Amino acid sequence: MTRTLFILNEAPYGSERAYNALRLAGAVAGRDGQQVRVFLLADAVGCARAGQKLPEGYYNIELMLGKVARNGEVALCGTCMDARSVKDEELIAGARRSTLKELADWTVDADKVLVF
Asked: Is the pTM of this model over 0.85?
């Protein structure tokens, strides 16, 4: 099994980094023999907020991240959540509060680490 870690730092909207990272993570997670983990840092913790309301026809980061969460793991930096007043109960299903220690563990365990 190949383990790929995606680390996202950017806000869900405003640039397309989170969008492109989650497009790739979703494509990798859908393949046999692949384990995908996504860790959200800094403004990227906003990607995991449930109930995102967007203009019709606009991509939805919440839905994209949900797909990855169903096929892999999604964790958020707890310190970054606190700094942005993101509460545990606001997160999408499958996403959870985590720590830098777990990110370090995931990094050491990963075969590939991609940072967006």
From this structure: yes
Q: Give the whole-angstrom CA distance, residue 95 versus residue 88.
A: 9
CATH 3.40.1260.10 fits domain 2-115:
yes
- DSSP H/E element including 15: none
Q: Which of 75, 44, 48, 76 is nearest to 63 (CA)?
A: 48
The alpha helices in the chain, defined as continuous H runs, are 17-29, 61-71, 78-83, 100-109
pLDDT digits (tens, 9 = 90+) for 13-62: 999 999 999 999 999 999 999 999 999 999 999 999 999 998 888 999 99
Q: How crowded is the C-beta side of 33, counted as CA atoms within 13 Å?
A: 3
